[in-house]
Amino acid sequence: MAMELKVDADPAEVGFDARRLARIDEHFTRYVDEGLLPGWLAVVARRGKVAYVGKHGHRDVEAGLEVEVDTRWRIHSMSKPVTSVAAMMLYEEGAFELTDPIARWLPEFAEPRVFVKGSALQPVTEPATEPIRVWHLLTHTAGLTYGFHHAHPVDAIYRENGFEFGTPPGADLAECVRRWAQLPLVFQPGAEWNYSVATDVLGRFVEVVSGQPLDEFFARRIFEPLGMGSTGFVTDDPDKLAALYVPDPATGRAVRNDAFGRTGQTRPACLSGGGGLVSTAADYHRFTQFLLGRGELDGVRLLSPRTVALMASNHLPGGVDLEQYGRGLFAEMPYDGFGFGLGFSVLEDPVKAKTLSSKGEYAWGGAASTAFWVDPAEEITALFFTQLLPSSTHPLRQYLRQLVYQAIVD
């Protein structure tokens, strides 16, 4: 059963100015009117109350279908926090320590090799001096990468092996992980931060540790208890699934792309904990409320408050930000002032980040320009949904932050 999502508080009740919140509508409606976005949906809540739900435009422009509150969206990398929560639930059961080498459960990673020099065709590698540990997967510091980065010879090796935007046809998660384990690492485990397939490997780790396929673990242990009935690796309602768009290189206008838009319509061979889920605003709102509730929602507790606090802390060595520790290439967040926790970006320095948001805010986004954040200091959660690949096309997330925080008046 789909959960209902509606405004349940007067904005003033929770410290917002309604006229100022309306600026969200004005701003994002322009993107639709100019043809830059097909349509969008945004949700802002504070102190557990929904103060704003805004939407405009179409979920399917060609069919003339408007964005509805229960539209299904491919959330891509917003799957990563779900996988991270799954892993930390097993951690709380004493299944492993964060410092454990993953090779204990994934023996294919027993002897990783690290790229030193050369090219994609003739790489020179050396043995890893440190095993890949569980926390390396959670923090994207394992030395793994993505084929779509186009920044390092190892990225090209991933593409050669069928890993650019997807996975080789027919290969399941176990097979993909076996193949990634055979490819060189970009750097020694723990040495740097690089956005990567680490969370997909973490999903396989969850499968092995729990003895359950990832979709089953998610459904039984997370989605059912939290009332997220419309979230999964395949949409529960194909008629409500939004179409996917990309910017036209010449005009910047959103153009339908059915090749990428096939995801979410059928159960994938590879259950990607890094990017495979489809969800609704109502479902993901419940997930953010569970996080804001420090591991509990409506009397259901999946994690302890201490575990959520650890996940939402900056784990980069020395407390540095991504600008100092990360590779300067695509991620779902800016680098300045942001660290990284166990599955989320973590805002360390709002001044350096040039944002109105609060220190301690944790967040992530997805490739089709979806995003969320949780701000424990102000008790705010915010969500944004659209379907435009890639998420670097427009600075939607930065603007949403500005527009939400300028509306706080208490």
Short description, anyone?
By secondary structure, the chain is an alpha+beta fold.
If you had to describe this structure to a student in words, what would you say it looks like?
This is CubicO group peptidase (Beta-lactamase class C family). InterPro entries: Beta-lactam-related, Beta-lactam/transpept-like, Diverse_Enzym_Activities. The chain is α+β, with helices and mostly antiparallel strands. It has 2 domains: 269 residues, Beta-lactamase (3-Layer(aba) Sandwich); 112 residues, no CATH class. The chain is built from 13 helices and 16 strands. The protein has an 8-stranded antiparallel sheet, with helices on both faces. Strands 4-9 form a two-stranded antiparallel ribbon.
